[in-house]
Design a protein that fits this description.
alpha+beta; about 400 residues; single chain; four-stranded antiparallel beta sheet; about 50% helix
């Protein structure tokens, strides 16, 4: 990370760039800089990863290549968007990106915990029984089951219904209820609002003009606002755009499916979990204590991660195998520099998963300092064997 005050200036710069993108001012340059700065901020802290942060990066990347500033933008008003035409392929690319998110989120819910135990929703809803009106019902398992199945059906069908003119209003009402409920009940940040706004891309392209015209009672003035002076230029999109969008969407389809290459339930091991739109599927609580041994003469040191890490880092690391491995390698490097001797690191790791009793997560006999970083399956992750709590 940048040293201060540059990291603060980095965040201020993100706000300025986001404002420029919203106004359509130097849109592609602003989006490119925003993509770089936001993605950098996301990638420097693994414990803070969230699916909708990843989605923001992807949408910013698409704004760089799509003519989102062709009309109703300051670029168009100042003549900086001449020759741009918004075509079906541009809408199709944006819609495909959003559809991939919803479809994979729905497919990920086709697991035993979600379908047959209503977990983790049942666990989360019991924490909100103090809410007015609905609170007393949230501890009932039938409510959790109802929300689980509604969420599954919503994710798998919303793109279809919002794409059809006859069902679009109904789909929008369902989307507002669904995402509004999630925002009210759970600490999901901007996720609900990002998805609701993204769904607007499935509407008829003229809906913003018609809405503003209705409010202003002056459709001609609205239609004229911000139009590029050469909007009728029928220049075809470059082949590069088709190649880029095709490659981008192919990656988006393949990356979330990579969990199929790993053994065991992905929600337990989390191998192939990130960048895969596996939303609201797990509730984990864990603890991890590390033992560092050095040779000649032998010494033993017990390390508690909370003494060094932030609370967020310690909490997330204790339930994610790759972060446990990262921290073990970090400890090995520190003690190796101090002692100049060979270092062995093991971990006593326990995780409670989706209402199950706590069980060992990592093999306590494996020297994690000797395990290389790799994308292959980590055999030192113990299988999920605990039965659900009654």
């Amino acid at each position: 990370p940048w040293p201060e005050p540059f990291l603060t200036l980095h965040v201020v710069g993100l706000a300025v760039l986001a404002f420029c993108v919203a106004l359509g001012l130097f849109t592609r340059v602003s989006a490119a800089l925003y993509f770089l700065l936001f993605t950098y901020a996301e990638l420097i802290e693994k414990s803070a990863y969230l699916n909708h942060y990843y989605l923001v990066s992807l949408l910013a990347l698409l704004v760089i290549v799509l003519p989102t500033h062709a009309v109703a933008s300051l670029d168009a008003r100042f003549g900086l968007a001449r020759g741009l035409v918004v075509r079906r392929v541009h809408y199709a690319a944006l819609r495909a990106q959003i559809a991939i998110v919803y479809v994979y989120a729905g497919l990920a819910k086709l697991n035993g915990d979600w379908l047959f135990r209503a977990e983790p929703l049942h666990t989360w809803l019991r924490a909100h029984t103090g809410l007015p009106l609905v609170g007393p019902y949230l501890s009932e398992r039938w409510v959790a089951f109802g929300m689980s199945y509604f969420g599954l059906l919503f994710d798998l069908t919303i793109v279809w219904f919002v794409s059809r003119p006859r069902t679009r209003v109904f789909a929008w009402i369902c989307a507002v209820l669904f995402h509004g409920s999630i925002a009210y009940l759970f600490p999901v940040g901007v996720f609900s609002w990002v998805m609701l706004i993204a769904l607007s891309s499935f509407g008829d392209p003229s809906w913003p003009r018609r809405c503003i015209a209705f409010l202003r009672r002056n459709s001609e003035a609205v239609v004229a606002f911000g139009n590029s002076s050469s909007a009728n230029n029928d220049k075809r999109p470059s082949p590069f755009l088709f190649v880029f969008l095709g490659a981008h969407l192919l990656v988006q389809v393949l990356v979330p499916a990579r969990f199929l290459l790993y053994p065991g339930p992905v929600n337990w091991t989390e191998e192939g979990f990130r960048f895969s739109w596996r939303v609201m599927l797990i509730e984990k609580a864990g603890q991890a204590e590390f033992t560092v041994r050095t040779d000649d003469p032998p010494t033993v040191n017990l390390v508690f991660p909370r003494d060094e890490l932030t609370p967020l880092q310690a909490r997330m690391m204790s339930t994610q195998a790759d972060m446990i491995h990262d921290y073990a390698l970090h400890l090995a490097e520190i003690f190796r520099k101090k002692s100049g001797r060979t270092v062995h690191v093991t971990v006593d790791s326990w995780v409670a998963f989706n209402g199950r009793p706590s069980q060992r997560f990592i093999d306590p006999h494996i020297d994690l300092a000797a395990q290389p970083r790799t994308l292959a399956h980590a055999p030192w992750i113990l299988p999920l064997v605990s039965e659900p709590a009654p």
